[in-house]
Amino acid sequence: MIAEEEMKGGDGFRTTGKKISVALLALVLMTLLLWDWETNPFVYTHVSTQYQSNTPPALAVSTITQAFMDITYEVCIHYDPNNSTESMEPAEMKTDGNKYQSLEKEEGKKPMQNGDDFEAEIIDGSFVNGTASADTKVCNYAKGRWVADSRPPLYAAKCKYMERKWACRLSNRTDFSYEGYRWQSVDCQKPEFEASHFLERMKDQIVAFVGDSLSREQFESMMCMLTGGQESSDIEDVQFLYTGEIHHPGWGYRFRSTNTTILYSKSTRLCDLEPINATDPNTLNAMHLDRQPAFIRENIDHLNVLVMNTDQHWRKTLVSWDNEVMYVNGAPVQDRNLKNISNAMIFKVNNIVKWLDSKLASNPNLQVFFRTKSPTHFFKGDWDTGGRCDNTIPMTRGSEVVEDESSDKVVAAAVKGTRVKLLDITALSDLRDEAHNSYYGKKSPDCLHWCLPGVPDTWNELLNAQL
Ligand SMILES: *[C@@H]1O[C@H](CO)[C@@H](O)[C@H](O)[C@H]1NC(C)=O
Ligand SMILES: *[C@@H]1O[C@H](CO)[C@@H](O)[C@H](O)[C@H]1NC(C)=O
Ligand SMILES: *[C@@H]1O[C@H](CO)[C@@H](O)[C@H](O)[C@H]1NC(C)=O
Ligand SMILES: *[C@@H]1O[C@H](CO)[C@@H](O)[C@H](O)[C@H]1NC(C)=O
Ligand SMILES: *[C@@H]1O[C@H](CO)[C@@H](O)[C@H](O)[C@H]1NC(C)=O
Ligand SMILES: *[C@@H]1O[C@H](CO)[C@@H](O)[C@H](O)[C@H]1NC(C)=O
Ligand SMILES: *[C@@H]1O[C@H](CO)[C@@H](O)[C@H](O)[C@H]1NC(C)=O
């Protein structure tokens, strides 16, 4: 495979010695998506308990007041892009100076129916002039374990902002033990998600999720986490402000009280799409590997938080089913290496990260996260060859992530040394094979998407922690 070979792509292709191992690439190629989007008649079996908003105050606030104790501080490291090989994220350190622990076929485009910064006081000398030295561990929320937690999910399954097909509680599933776990980071304490706190911090801001259906699940999860699933007159539908472009359907909601906008824009491969012959209704579309999706291009100056992903849709068959043709430099891809779809994805990921990094250089009000690959769990076959995910017992694959490095090497390598942050959910989600939609309410097992409430809620908790 591409493995030992250095990529030789077109312009802008990163060839800086980043070798992608076979295993990594295999991970990228591993799966596919292609689901029947029909709504099967679901059986109502449960109505979940309402979320009780009685979570403790966010970490930063509570810890500041107890600084004397062996409590973690949030430390904001100022990132010097010219002199760092790692993107810096908030780290935490202990006061005692110890090492701180610190495919789908998209359905119709209808809307859903349904603190204080501490100056790092360096005792062990691992922070040097505001830049972490090589052996310094910045806060890595992706490392940790799933722990049993009897608290109910943050929202009800009949959440207004969620597509019913994700709601396993509204399907014929009868086992919900997958809901009883929360992610616990080992290196640093993850703040509790508190909707009102999140909205307050995101006052007057726009948070955008851009990507495939897994991105949409994360967006829907976020909306449900912020509302507890309830409809409210505080929320205004603003999708009309942001959508309408061909191939870029999406949804958007504004919370009037804080003027916070949360939106989703579909872009399965994060490429700009353009009809090749605009007057031909049956035209193929150019899928520009080296141009950014229209939504991102047009809105980037107004966004405050961008969370994106791409992975599963990089399959030749999916590109052609979408009537798209890969373009680079304004012309169909000729380069032999770039014609290879896995190389094309690596090219795209690096291209958009580089482009966003340059935007970030001049926009202090923007934060960009690249969410890593969402793992699939098709056993005894793949998505199209009878693969299934029948297990309903949590943690049979283990409950801990001990690796420091992301298992999504493509995305991790691309963001390294840039201002784009890694939202690393791959390994922790990989432990949750029992939490997919599976065959509940489905003709064929969906071992790609997740039950909601469920695993994508944890992605948002990590996002919240890293903001
Ligand atoms: C892409 O390239 C790798 C090696 O560079 C090869 O193993 C793989 O089969 C190629 N994929 C396709 C679809 O040609
Ligand atoms: C980083 O390097 C660029 C180009 O070399 C320069 O324009 C910029 O001022 C530098 N920034 C810092 C913080 O040193
Ligand atoms: C980067 O930081 C190191 C250590 O602080 C310093 O010696 C070096 O001059 C810096 N390089 C640049 C380009 O700023
Ligand atoms: C940190 O900065 C100080 C003052 O600029 C300098 O004297 C010292 O050498 C720097 N430390 C390192 C490790 O570069
Ligand atoms: C609401 O937030 C948007 C940015 O998201 C900003 O442009 C607008 O001025 C804000 N409106 C008010 C009334 O503050
Ligand atoms: C574009 O499509 C129209 C309508 O099908 C056709 O008449 C025209 O020749 C096409 N143009 C090119 C350059 O192919
Ligand atoms: C749930 O319903 C689907 C069809 O909607 C069916 O294929 C599946 O076997 C059912 N599962 C159980 C556990 O009843």
TrEMBL record:
Membrane topology reported for the UniProt record: Single-pass membrane protein
Swiss-Prot/TrEMBL keywords: Membrane, Signal-anchor, Transmembrane, Transmembrane helix
Compartment(s) of residence: Membrane
Extent of Basic and acidic residues compositional bias: 91-110
One Gene Ontology CC term in the entry: Golgi apparatus
Trichome birefringence-like C-terminal domain ranges (all copies): 191-465
Boundaries of every Trichome birefringence-like N-terminal domain copy: 138-189
UniProt feature coiled coil, ranges: none
Predominant location category: membrane
A GO molecular-function descriptor: O-acetyltransferase activity
InterPro entries on file: TBL (IPR029962), TBL_C (IPR026057), TBL_N (IPR025846)
Pfam families found in the cross-reference section: PC-Esterase (PF13839), PMR5N (PF14416)
Residue ranges of the region described as Disordered: 84-113
Source superkingdom: Eukaryota
Transmembrane segments: 20-37
Family per similarity comment: Belongs to the PC-esterase family. TBL subfamily.
Name under which the protein is recorded: Trichome birefringence-like N-terminal domain-containing protein
Species for this entry: Gossypium stocksii
